[in-house]
Design goal:
The chain is mainly α. It contains 19 helices and no strands. The chain has a single domain, classed as Growth Hormone, Chain: A (Up-down Bundle), CATH 1.20.1250. The longest helix has 31 residues.
Length: 396
């Protein structure tokens, strides 16, 4: 793999450590500071909203300034968000804490572009492996983020304020890594040799393959966020599990999200995108069954681990399928469309999680996920049927 891929993997490891810190503590701090219980997950939801609203502006900036400058700016943004969150906790400012989540999400939107930059740095046949290699950086983040949060939560007089200074630290470390990133890759160089023109987006969207790719990422991310956001609140505040047990469940979940990246690129190359997507959907069904079966620590842990692995299969398969739907010069248009759908739906899921968990309960929250799983199955069936019809038309 080129140096770019390794640089992005390491930057991902540091920068993504901020996310599990907010996921672990955001709902808990939100429950303590929010004026009403149903707003307890709003800080986490605002982080996801930040990702969603920043996607299009970030892609415009990358077109004009290049990925490297925007990546470095994103690391700085993460660091600033950490300081803002720490001050908000210190002064018990709920809305300031929500604003820091929004800012952290804007930085996170830039981190989400690492996978596309990695795929542009390698030959098309290696795109799945490059994407999974970068996502593997999240494995270190799964350990680093929660451990830093617990280590630093009491270093300042106000509990948890010190934990968010660790967000600033990991942002600075990511920035140092990104200084070694280079914008040019073989895909970009090839596109400069022969440009075929940029098609209108409605023309590109006629491909069933594109909707399957987007659907895998959208449904994978939205359901994962919906369940993950509600879990710490339900475990710690409703079922009264300890913070250490809650941390272990979330940490195990994040590990399960990224550890399969060791093999998911290989599995996609060997078994194909469709089978890996179906495996991811099957794991999501298993997640629901395990979570509905009981409220013991083992139920939460096993369900969240299955949720993490299922997310990895769906997200890596969808991400690596997407480049086959556009020309190199169309990449920013299609990537911003894809990520707007992905993180817009994730934002809605996170915003809804707090309300659903308090108003409808844990079981109904899980049942709501079933139609989304069925939707992706329908999209895959449509894609396969379209391919079958296309083959019949081309046959003599």
């Amino acid at each position: 793999m080129p140096l770019n891929v390794w640089v992005l993997m390491l930057a991902q490891a540091f920068a993504m450590s901020a996310t599990p810190i907010m996921v672990l503590l955001g709902g808990i701090i939100g429950a303590e500071l929010s004026p009403v219980p149903s707003l307890s997950t709003l800080p986490i939801a605002m982080m996801v909203v930040g990702v969603a609203v920043a996607i299009v502006p970030i892609n415009i900036l990358m077109q004009r300034l290049g990925r490297r400058r925007v990546f470095i700016g994103g690391a700085l943004l993460t660091s600033v968000a950490g300081v803002m969150a720490a001050l908000s906790v210190w002064y018990a400012q709920f809305w300031g804490f929500c604003a820091s989540g929004l800012l952290l999400g804007c930085g996170g939107a830039i981190i989400q572009q690492y996978r596309f930059a990695a795929m542009e740095s390698v030959a098309p046949t290696l795109s799945a492996k490059a994407a999974s290699r970068v996502l593997l950086g999240g494995l270190l983040a799964a350990f680093l983020g929660p451990e830093l949060a617990l280590l630093a939560k009491d270093i300042l007089p106000v509990t948890y304020s010190g934990a968010f200074l660790m967000v600033t630290l990991v942002g600075v470390l990511a920035l140092v890594c990104l200084l070694f990133y280079q914008d040019e890759g073989p895909v970009l160089k090839a596109s400069k040799v022969e440009r075929m023109g940029i098609r209108p987006l409605p023309i590109i969207l006629r491909q069933s393959r594109l909707w399957v790719a987007c659907g895998a990422a959208v449904i994978g991310y939205a359901l994962m966020s919906f369940i993950m956001t509600a879990t710490p609140v339900h475990m710690h505040h409703i079922e009264h599990h300890s913070l250490e047990d809650t941390k272990w469940v979330i940490q195990s979940h994040v590990i399960a999200m990224y550890l399969p990246s060791l093999i998911s690129g290989y599995l996609i190359a060997r078994l194909g995108h469709t089978r890996i997507m179906l495996a991811g959907l099957a794991l999501y069904c298993l997640t629901l069954a395990l979570a509905l079966a009981g409220r013991d620590l083992l139920n939460y842990w096993s369900a969240l681990v299955m949720l993490g692995v299922g997310w990895n299969f769906l997200f890596v398969a969808g991400t690596s399928l997407l480049p086959g739907c556009y020309r190199p010069e169309e990449r920013f248009t299609v990537q911003s469309f894809n990520d707007s759908l992905v993180f817009g739906s994730q934002a809605l899921a996170s915003l809804g999680a707090g309300w659903v968990i308090y108003q409808l309960g844990w079981q109904l929250l899980l049942v709501i996920c079933i139609p989304a799983i069925a939707t992706q199955l329908i999209l895959i069936a449509w894609w396969k049927l379209s391919k079958s019809k296309a083959l019949q038309i081309t046959e003599p």
